Amino acid sequence: MKKILASLVTAASLTVSSAYAGELIIIYNDLNPTPKAAFEKVVSDFEAANPDINVKLSINDREAHKPAIRNFLSAGPPDITAWYPGNRMGPFVDAGLIEDISDLWASDPNLSSSFEAIKPTMTRDGKQWGVPYSYYQWGIYYRKDIFDKMGIAEPKTWSEFLAACEKLKSGGVTPITIGSKYLWTAAGVFDYLNLRTNGYDVHNDLTAGKIAYTDDRIRATFAKWEELVRPGYFVENHTSMSWQEAVAPFASGDAAMYVMGNFAVSVMKEAGLSQDQIDYFPFPEITPGMPRAEEAPADALFIPSGAKNKDDARKFLAFVARPDVLSEWNGTIGQLPPHSEAEVSEDKFIQQGMATVSTAAGLAQFYDRDAPAEMAKAGMEGFQEFMVKPDRLDAILKRLDKVQKKVYK
Amino acid sequence: MRSGHRNSLSLMPVLFIAPALLFFVVYVILPIFQSFFISFHEWDGLGEMTWIGFDHYVNLLDDDRFYTSLKNNLLWLVFYTLSVPAGLFIALYLNQTVTGIRLYKSLFFFPFVISQIVVGLIFSWFYNPTFGVVGHVFEFFGAAPPSILGDERYVTYGIIVAGLWPQIAYCMILYLTGLNNVATEQIEAGRLDGAKGWRLLWHVVLPQLWPATFLAIVVTVIGALRSFDMIAIMTQGGPYGSSNVLSYYMYETALSEYGYEMGYGSAIAVVLFMIMMVFIIAFLWKMYQDEKDWR
User: How far is CA B62 from each of CA A389, A402, B66, B246, B250, rounded to the nearest angstrom?
Assistant: First the structure.
């Protein structure tokens, strides 16, 4: 206990330094080389445009940021912090730890006019709480060179997808890589199977606690999943790998597909793959005629209600909402700008992503952002367990029902 | 003057103890009662608290994850105490005078000096089935390497082994200092009477090492019950909660990324506290008995 506290205190003490006027303290949450450099560029551009403001930037590891934020929001809030919209911002908004910036959304020329599509995710209790800077598509990234060599075309339907898996497997290539150590990757697979089997409304009803996990529709989703688990279409040992580690078999050609968000592309390239070796297709159709919904989670910046320099923080958020800033930033990190007039990069993944997301019938945030935290944790552990022990499905679903009853009362 | 002396005699100890006592009360005693209090509430750690009585404890009885954690704590308790005999034998082995023995001793002590986090990281690479040493050894013999940290059957044992490495070093150093105080006359007397090997160890050396043994057992049992760092760094309780122990499960429900249940976490903490109290009372009672005998 003492050690946890100690680590929390050190995490917090980074931020608890007395701010003076003109100093803007920002905590960002991505240490991966490309996103880190891209955000540092945004900050230095902001400083160049506002010479009287001195930004103090500290960057946390993405996973370390998640437990740390709760502590620093109440103990020593920065002026701006990165966090996630949807249900993930819920507890902090409800506890009054995040600044209401509806005024900025109303007055800023960009936020008031060009963020309509994403505004609902940033809204809670009819107010806006943060500024989204990026979102990205999910789907299946695959090794185009391997597909070409084995004569496989991009599968459009479930049966084509299963046939492709079968062909890869018999050719000595594991069809799908995944690293489920941190659980959420398995939720991505579940979400897609569920969206394609039952559609967007069932996804929302499930994460809102209106449908039980033992419901026949959810069982149907797991039945589809079982068709991938039983024949061994996922890499072995996925429970001990992070998502980055799971890129290794993909890069070496031992695995050919990855159900992932677009941020994975830069890691795949860092692992030595070229732009031509990787390609993307949307998750194939399962129930014929089901309107196609997609996962498209957004990343956002928030002002803690305890921030000392809220004026400059608002200036920074307004700066971030500019189309030119968002274009350049998202161009670097390979994601989609939430501003409707921002330029979308020419990169093929961004183009395909834009095409996929803009024609979708509905956009889901992600299982662990749409469901409340406790449910998400239990659910994702259940998904991981199912991928290892599909025989335990009944026990897992019953346990999830039990958690569900407790969480949504 | 005399009475003034008496006053200062009775006052000084209190004055000296006061700062430590104050911190102990504020940071140890009060939080214990606070945990009891919170465990009767529904609270997300940020908003308002609602009284729900014993509901959390009733839920605990019906929580698979809780039983998994309890079982793993038991495994920790049983296997972690192996570090006491292991530390003893390494200490006996190192307790000789040859050139460079100080270097060997410090090398054996090394794992205790490096941070638990580093030990955990090293072992998780070591266990990695794809590029770790364990993987290579299995491949050398033509077998498929097990995913020790990814398989619910092995994961807890894998972490305990990693935890044993520094703990053995710690027990070893306790015994090494203890061995310095073993009376050589008694050993020689034992030798003259024909005792050697195991009998000498059991009847002559070990009784003299009792203070070191007691300390090693206390430290190891407490260490096993509050094992946390290794699990946090190696598996985060995974896969699917199968390597959880009570202390990590408490952290997970109350403080981690998905944990907003301070009440439920506190209930787990209370249960862990009760289990620890059993051991602590036993240890205190034993210490009291020992001191009574010496008087």
Answer: 22, 9, 8, 15, 16
Alpha-helical (H) ranges within A234-322 are 247-252, 264-270, 310-320
SS3 A28: strand
| Dist CA A97 CA A78 (whole Å) | 12
Per the structure block, which two tokens stand in for A235? 């890499």
What is the Cα–Cα distance from A182 to A167, expressed in whole angstroms? 29
* Closest in B45, B239, B269 to A239, CB measured: B239
With 90 as the cut, is the pLDDT of residue B260 above it?
A: no
Identify from B246, B257, B260 which residue to disrupt to test chain A contact, counting A C-beta atoms within 10 A and taking the largest count.
B257
Chain B contact present for A182, CB below 8 A: yes
- Kindly report the pTM of this predicted structure: 0.82
Give the three-class secondary structure for A21.
Answer: coil
Query: Is the CB of A399 inside 8 Å of chain B's CB atoms?
Result: yes
| CB within 8 Å: B239 and A388 | yes
In this prediction, residue A16 carries a pLDDT of: 43
Q: What is the mean pLDDT of each run of 10 residues along chain A (409 residues)?
A: 47 45 89 91 94 93 86 91 88 91 94 86 90 93 96 95 96 95 94 95 91 96 96 92 92 95 90 94 94 91 94 94 93 88 86 87 86 90 95 95 88
Determine, for residues B151 and A239 on separate chains, whether the beta-carbon distance falls below 8 Å. yes
Say yes or no for a CB contact (<8 Å) between B64 and A183. Answer: no
ipTM, 2 decimals?
A: 0.81
The verdict on B190 touching A (C-beta cutoff 8 Å) is: no
pLDDT tens-digit map of B174-230:
999 999 888 888 888 888 888 778 888 888 888 889 989 999 999 999 999 988 999
Interior angle at CA A338, CA A336 and CA A343, nearest 5 = 60
Please tell me the distance from the alpha carbon of residue A71 to that of residue A90, in angstroms, as a whole number: 16
Higher pLDDT, B6 or A92: A92
Per the CB < 8 A criterion, the answer to whether A65 and A118 are in contact is no
Query: CA nearest A75 in B: which residue?
Result: B46
Q: Looking at residue B191, what is its pLDDT?
A: 84
pLDDT (tens digit, 9 = 90+) per residue, A365-400?
889 888 888 899 999 999 999 999 999 999 999 999
Cα B219 to chain centroid distance, Å, stands at: 6
The answer to whether B258 contacts A374, with C-beta atoms less than 8 Å apart, is yes
State whether A239 and B147 contact (CB < 8 Å).
yes
Least Cα distance to B216 among B74, B77, B83, B95 occurs for B83
pLDDT given for residue B295 in this prediction: 60
Q: Nearest-CA neighbor of A29 among A332, A304, A300, A395?
A: A300
Q: What is the mean pLDDT of residues B87-98?
A: 89
Determine the Cα–Cα distance for residues A347 and A327; give it in Å rounded to an integer. Answer: 12
A291, two tokens = 């309107």
Element (H or E) spanning A218, and its range? helix A216-229
